[in-house]
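Forum > Structural Biology > Help requests

Title: Can anyone predict the 3D structure of NAD(P)/FAD-dependent oxidoreductase?

Hi all, first post here. I have the sequence for NAD(P)/FAD-dependent oxidoreductase but no way to get a structure on my laptop. I'd be grateful if someone could post the structure tokens.
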Amino acid sequence: MKGTSRVCDVVVLGAGPAGENLADRTSAAGLTSVIVENELLGGECSFWACEPSKALLRPVVARADARRVPGLRRAAEGPLDVPAVLAHRDEMAAHWQDDDQVDWLRSVSVDLVRGHGRLDGPRQVVVDTADGGTVRLTARHAVGVATGTITAFPDLPGLEQVHPWTNRDATAARHVPERLAVVGGGVVAVEMATAWQALGSRVTVLVRGHRGLRSRMEPFAGEMVADALRAAGADLRFDTSVTEVVREGGAGSPVRITLSDGGSLVADEILFATGRAPHTADIGLETVGLTPGDWLAVDDSYRVTDVPDGWLYAVGDVNHRALMTHQGKYQARIAGAVIGARAKGEPLDDGRWGAHASTADSAATPQVVFSEPEVTSVGLTTREAERTGHRVDVVDYDIGRVAGAAQYADGYRGKARVLIDAGRGTVVGVTFVGPGTQELLYSATVAITSEMHVDRLWHAVPAFPTISEVWLRVLETYRDRAGRTT
Ligand SMILES: Cc1cc2nc3c(=O)[nH]c(=O)nc-3n(C[C@H](O)[C@H](O)[C@H](O)COP(=O)(O)OP(=O)(O)OC[C@H]3O[C@@H](n4cnc5c(N)ncnc54)[C@H](O)[C@@H]3O)c2cc1C
Ligand SMILES: NC(=O)c1ccc[n+]([C@@H]2O[C@H](COP(=O)([O-])OP(=O)(O)OC[C@H]3O[C@@H](n4cnc5c(N)ncnc54)[C@H](O)[C@@H]3O)[C@@H](O)[C@H]2O)c1
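Reply #1:
Sure, ran it for you. Structure tokens for NAD(P)/FAD-dependent oxidoreductase below:
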């Protein structure tokens, strides 16, 4: 077995969206950067998560929209063209090839080592390469871990033998199962149930809790999505856990699922959308005093808190702050700037909203759930505000009453909730549910991050007739309730 070694400024472990951006920004800061990847550059997001799942969902949402437009409704009746949808999904997953990303990496002067990387003591990473060799990388300044997550399975008898679907199967499958059971009530469950029900599966969603779908969002969001999923034909069962799974006839036969209420269910495939576990079991954490399989807790500059000397950073899903691509990329941009500044001995601008501070992780993490209807949110929910003792005015508005919504769809159903800090008069939380609301999310994010007083929002005039006039209606509701004239 041959072994080589090299020294560089920064080593990044994992080339998903977070790792790629971290390597890019450290390279942009003038540091020599090497990235290590075991599978495909682009990570889970490009190949088994965001990109293929949104490609599966886009025709579902577009068809639902078309069916609400008078004159278009009849043209949009009928089933989806499944082969065309799956072919488009393949395109959007770049046919599971990462050549474009390899080119991009070269264009930003980041070197790539393909193979499984592990920490091997402070500032050291050893990579087992596909040809049976090893490469030892020594980082002068920093190692960044961006190894992401894998599916977190519950501890269930018989689970391995049934070959359950994970997000990888749910986004890359080549056939439509006649009956699909989905375990979980989070984002993956909601999005994949929406997609596969529309593609022709009979979907049953098994949710262990009673608080509804997407329990971390405003309750009305989960209720509206649940209503729509039921209307689309899915069977939703709350307070229902799985206690056992078995393919009685062996591989390829249906799965019998035993439920906590004593009943059972038969499906052709079972998807576990039961959350994520850190992809850290085999990355040498024990060599730097950490526990394999743990999440990596970080400070506000993304340095791993339990490792001395400040050379180890963690960005993206693996730090468990906000498991979304855009937020991992945000973290990577900041961590890259931090590593660059520290390497040059420059002071950090780490005050609230400073260039080296991770303020948005806690104040303004945006998310779109691409269900039908879509759910968009950023900042606090009412429950979080209550839990943290944050005093807020809650302004609700029925988006269906906005002129632009009536133009968008016949019988538009949607709801907005805006949380305004009771003392400072700034927007601190926004949730929109309804068709076409995803493009309103950036305005909400800007409203929160700019911390402008709502009085200034009166000057941000939304065009008529667009759904964005919901902002004006919210301001009017807030003003009228307070008995103000402006
Ligand atoms: C079904 C689904 C849909 C999603 N949709 C969205 C969405 O629409 N929008 C959104 O913002 N987020 C979405 N997410 C979340 C998003 O996929 C993650 O937040 C994102 O992929 C995290 O990026 P990351 O770089 O931290 O990790 P990952 O994307 O998981 O990348 C980690 C990389 O590290 C590599 N790696 C791991 N260990 C090693 C090792 N030891 N050596 C070398 N390489 C290693 C892996 O091979 C991988 O390429 C979705 C998730 C799922 C499951
Ligand atoms: N559009 C998007 O932004 C998007 C899309 C998909 C995923 N994601 C991200 O990916 C992450 C993972 O999504 P997810 O849906 O897998 O996780 P999640 O944490 O959102 O939901 C997990 C669900 O599984 C349930 N669950 C957990 N353990 C269980 C068990 N043993 N039995 C039954 N149910 C169980 C939970 O109660 C919850 O309903 C999320 O944090 C999300 O932010 C984002």
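DSSP finds 15 helices and 21 strands in the chain. Residues 13-19, 36-39, 43-45, 49-50, 53-54, 116-117, 146-149, 167, 171, 188, 279, 283, 316-318, 323-326, 328 surround flavin-adenine dinucleotide (ligand 1) (CB under 6 Å).
Shout if anything looks off.
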